[in-house]
Each structure stands twice: as C-alpha cells, then as structure tokens.
Design goal:
Distance between the termini: 12 Å
Structural class: mainly alpha
Pfam families: MNHE
Number of helices: 5
Keywords: Cell membrane, Membrane, Transmembrane, Transmembrane helix
InterPro entries: Cation_antiport_E
Radius of gyration: 20 Å
Number of domains: 2
Order of helices and strands: HHHEHEEH
Membrane topology: Multi-pass membrane protein
Shape: elongated
Strand order of the largest sheet: 1-3-2
Family: Belongs to the CPA3 antiporters (TC 2.A.63) subunit E family.
Length: 159
C-alpha cells in the first residue's frame, strides 16, 4: 500500500513537471490521474482495490488525529490546572506476530501521542514497554493500545 501511495505522489509530481504548472489544482489533477492508473493496474493484476486502501489509510489518520487531539487536551489541562491527576505506569505490551516494520510503526504511533512513550522493547522483540501518564486502570490502557494496534494492522498494514 505504501509504495502505491508513493507512486501516486510521484505520478502527480511528474504530471506537474510535464504540464509545467506548479499549482495545487495541477497537483490534484495529477494525483487523480495517477490514482486512476494505479486502480486500473490493481484490477488487472488482481492485487486489491487501491481506492479502498487509500480510504482505510485516511480512516486511520482520522482515528489517530482524534486520539492526538484528546491526548493534547489532556496534557494541556494537566499543565494548566493546579491539581495533578497523573497516574503514571509502565505497561508491558505484547507485539507477538508482528513484523519489525509493524512494531516500529506501532511504537512510533504510541510515542507520538502526548502522555505516552515507548520506552523499550525486550530482547526477544515480543513485548514493548510503554510509559503512560494516565494509566489508572491497567486493563483500560491495554484495551486502548489494542485498539491502536488493531486499527494499525487492519487499516495500514491490511492483515
């Protein structure tokens, strides 16, 4: 999926170079033409639906943006309010069955969210150690991580 999206971006930039008009409209037209070509390629080669893959990626970005906004507001409130409500905890989170690229993407996604940080991975590469600022309920925190992992695997990596 990632290489198809990068190919689509390259085709849009190539279209801009061929037309000679570096405007947003030309980029959008080039991107749509590239998407059409890639969609036809995917149908002929029976490798899935490119628009469906892009839609799933957009859904994940929307999901992650929502999480990011909520976490930023929570941390901002913590900084601005005189009362501290932090309940920090280190969680051991299983990543068995994931490839190194998938583990890295999950770890970076977790670390990008304010209030969480992927601190370490064990020697086997089977567990991440994650520091969370707001982990009063361990099971709820693990469910939140499971949801991020599930959405990442289904919408980005399509497993």
């Amino acid at each position: 999926m990632t290489w198809l999206f990068l190919l689509n971006l390259f085709m849009a930039i190539l279209y801009i170079a061929l037309v000679g008009d570096p405007s947003a409209f030309t980029f959008v037209v080039g991107f749509l033409l590239g998407a059409l070509v890639i969609t036809l390629y995917c149908r002929v080669s029976k490798t899935g639906s490119y628009p469906g893959k892009v839609w799933r990626l957009i859904r994940f970005v929307g999901f992650f943006t929502r999480i990011l906004i909520i976490a930023n507001l929570q941390v901002a409130w913590e900084v601005l309010s005189p009362k501290h409500t932090m309940t920090p905890r280190i969680l051991r989170y299983s990543v068995q069955g994931m490839t190194p690229a998938q583990i890295t993407t999950l770890a970076n996604t977790i670390s990008l969210t304010p209030g969480t940080l992927t601190a370490d991975i064990d020697d086997d590469g089977q567990h991440l150690y994650i520091h969370g600022m707001y982990c009063r309920d361990r099971d709820a925190a693990l469910r939140d991580l499971d949801e991020i992992k599930r959405r990442l695997m289904n919408e980005v990596f399509e497993t």
